[in-house]
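User: Can you help me understand a structure? I only have the sequence.
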Amino acid sequence: MAKTRKLPKTPLLARRKPQREPKLKLIVVCEGEKTEPKYLNDFAIK
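Assistant: Let's start by predicting it. Here is the structure, written out as tokens:
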């Protein structure tokens, strides 16, 4: 009788869960010199 060969276990192909929190990215586009600091300060406070 011939021996049957066992196949190795394959790893799961599912995606892993994220390991860390994603970083918040903020892009502010404006032209005025007076309004730019206001936008940035408002977001920094929140």
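Now, to help you interpret it: The chain is about 25% helix and 0% strand. The two ends are 74 Å apart (CA to CA). Let me know which part you'd like to focus on.
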